[in-house]
Design goal:
Elements (H helix, E strand, L loop, with lengths): L3 E10 L5 E11 L2 E10 L2 H13 L7 H8 L1
Antiparallel strand pairs: 1-2, 2-3
Length: 72
């Protein structure tokens, strides 16, 4: 499935009550959200870099989980 990958941004609260912004990956196909993976990156620039790679390499959705595991 051909997807367009986009960054998602969420706020989480750690066990000490401190809020952090985290970034995830959304996969879109034909203007429909088909997969969303929250809380993958803490660094926005790193998230943008990898999502740019996913798009430029036409990453297939079936490989997304493996690629995220490798990134982590």
């Amino acid at each position: 499935m051909k997807c367009d990958y986009r960054m998602r941004e969420d706020r989480i609260t750690d066990e000490e009550g401190i809020q952090h912004t985290v970034y995830g990956v959304e996969a879109w196909s034909k203007n429909e959200l088909v997969r969303s993976v929250p809380d993958v990156f803490f660094d926005r620039a790193l998230a943008e870099h990898y999502i740019g790679l996913f798009n430029s390499l036409d990453l297939r959705l079936c490989h997304l989980d493996d690629v995220i595991e490798d990134v982590l």
